[in-house]
Write a structure and sequence with these properties.
The protein is mainly alpha-helical and 393 residues long. It has 15 helices and no strands. Helices cover 75% and strands 0% of the residues.
C-alpha cells in the first residue's frame, strides 16, 4: 500500500457523498451516468477500505480464509472499472448505444469477477501473499485481473482524450484529460505485474506497482470529481444567493405588505427554518418579488409628480438604472406616507423604473434589488424623524 492510499480513499468517499447529496436533492429524473458515477465512487472507496491492513486482517479472520480480502478488493476494483467505462459510454454515445455498451461492460465485469473467485480458491494459501508467481492458478488469477484492468484503463485513456477534444467547456475538457492521464498511469501497474508474471520483475518492484495504481486512481477520481464539485458549487452558490436575495428584499416587501396585506396570496415559510433545513427558497423568492410589484401597483394612485421631480433632482448625480432605482425608492416612500394619510395624487405618475428595460427574470431581480437597497438606505437616513417620512417637495 502506497502513501497515496488514504488520499484515494478520501477523494472516493467525498465523491460518493457529493453525488449522493445531488441525487437525493434532485427533483428530476436522474441520468444513468450519475448513478453509475456514484457507484464508481462507492466501489472505489470500498476497495481502498478493504486494502487497509486492519480491515484486511479482520475480513480474513471473519471468513476464515487466508487472503480472501484480495479477491474481494479486486472485485470492487473490477466494479469500478465497469462503472467508469459505462459512465464514459454515456458521455460519448447516444443513450441507446450507451445502454448497450454498459450492458456489455457489466456482463464482462461479472465474468471477470467470477473468474477471479474461481481461480482464487485454486491458489495455495501460502503462495498468494507473495509477489512471485509460482503456481499456474496464481498465474491464471493474475492474468485475468491484469487483462481486464488494462483493457478498462486503455478504454478510459483513449475515450477520455478523444472526448476532451470535442467538449466545448474548458474545465470539462481538463477533467477528461486528467482521467485519461490517471488511467494511463494505472497501466504502469499492469506492466509491472505482467513483467512479474513473465519472470522479468521481482518483489522490489512492488512499491512502484502500488504507486502507479494509487496515483492513477487518485488522478482518475479527481478527474471524475471536478464536474461534481462544479455542479455542487453552483448549487450551493444558487442556494446561498437566493436566501441572501430574499433577505435583501425583506424591508421593501415588509413596507409594501404593511400597506396592502392582500398582496400575499400564499404564506411563505420561515426563512430561518428553511435555511436551517438547507431547503430551497426559490418559490418564496419568486413570490416575494411578485408581491413587491403587486404592492407597487397598489400604490400607483398615490404617486405624486412633485415627489418624483424632487427625487430626480436629488439623485441627479446618478445615471441610468441606478438613478431610476433611487427615484423609485423615494416614490414608494412618499406613496406609502400618502397612503397612510389617505391622500391620493390628483394626477398619478409612473414609477421612474418603468423606463428601465427588464426583459428577463434576472434583470427584473437586479432592478428590484437596487430599489430595495435605496429604499432601505433612505428609510435608515429618515429614521430619526419617521420610518416612512415623505420625500421633500
Amino acid at each position: 500500500m502506497s502513501a497515496l492510499h488514504p488520499y484515494c480513499l478520501a477523494i472516493s468517499s467525498l465523491g460518493f457523498v457529493l453525488l449522493l447529496w445531488g441525487l437525493k436533492s434532485s427533483k428530476t429524473k436522474t441520468h444513468p451516468a450519475l448513478l453509475l458515477l456514484a457507484l464508481t465512487y462507492l466501489a472505489s472507496a470500498g476497495s481502498f477500505i478493504i486494502e487497509m491492513p486492519p480491515i484486511w486482517s479482520r475480513i480474513d479472520s471473519t471468513f476464515g480464509v487466508t487472503n480472501i480480502a484480495v479477491p474481494l478488493s479486486q472485485s470492487w476494483v473490477m466494479l469500478v472499472c465497469t462503472c467508469q467505462t459505462s459512465v464514459i459510454a454515456y458521455w460519448a454515445y447516444a443513450p441507446s448505444q450507451a445502454r448497450r455498451a454498459a450492458k456489455w461492460f457489466f456482463a464482462v465485469g461479472a465474468v471477470v469477477i467470477a473468474g477471479l473467485m474461481v481461480t482464487f480458491f485454486q491458489i495455495p494459501p501460502d503462495d498468494f501473499a507473495t509477489f512471485q508467481v509460482r503456481e499456474w492458478s496464481y498465474a491464471t488469477y493474475l492474468s485475468i485481473y491484469i487483462a481486464a484492468y488494462t483493457a478498462a484503463q486503455a478504454y478510459l485513456t483513449v475515450q477520455c482524450w478523444k472526448l476532451a477534444r470535442r467538449v466545448g467547456v474548458s474545465w470539462v475538457a481538463w477533467s477528461l484529460r486528467i482521467i485519461a492521464v490517471g488511467a494511463l498511469i494505472t497501466i504502469g501497474q499492469s506492466v509491472i505485474r505482467s513483467a512479474n508474471l513473465l519472470g522479468m520483475a521481482d518483489v522490489k518492484w512492488l512499491d512502484l506497482a502500488w504507486l502507479c495504481g494509487d496515483l492513477g486512481a487518485l488522478l482518475t477520481s479527481i478527474g471524475y470529481l471536478l464536474p461534481t464539485l462544479v455542479d455542487r458549487g453552483r448549487e450551493t452558490y444558487t442556494w446561498v444567493n437566493e436566501h441572501y436575495t430574499y433577505q435583501r428584499l425583506g424591508p421593501l416587501w415588509e413596507a409594501l405588505h404593511g400597506a396592502s396585506p392582500e398582496i400575499t396570496a400564499v404564506e411563505a415559510p420561515s426563512q430561518r427554518s428553511t435555511f436551517l433545513r438547507l431547503g430551497s427558497i426559490n418559490f418564496a423568492l419568486y413570490r416575494r418579488s411578485t408581491e413587491i410589484r403587486d404592492g407597487m401597483i397598489e400604490l400607483r394612485p398615490y404617486l405624486r409628480a412633485s415627489a418624483r421631480n424632487s427625487a430626480e433632482a436629488r439623485h441627479v448625480q446618478l445615471t441610468g438604472t441606478e438613478c431610476a432605482a433611487a427615484v423609485t425608492a423615494e416614490q414608494i416612500r412618499d406613496a406609502l406616507h400618502a397612503h397612510q394619510e389617505g391622500r391620493p395624487a390628483a394626477t398619478p405618475v409612473e414609477y421612474a423604473d418603468s423606463r428601465v428595460p427588464a426583459d428577463t427574470a434576472a434583470q427584473e431581480m437586479r432592478l428590484l434589488l437596487r430599489i430595495a437597497f435605496h429604499f432601505k438606505s433612505q428609510v435608515a437616513d429618515a429614521a430619526p424623524n419617521s420610518s416612512l417620512a415623505p420625500a421633500a417637495g
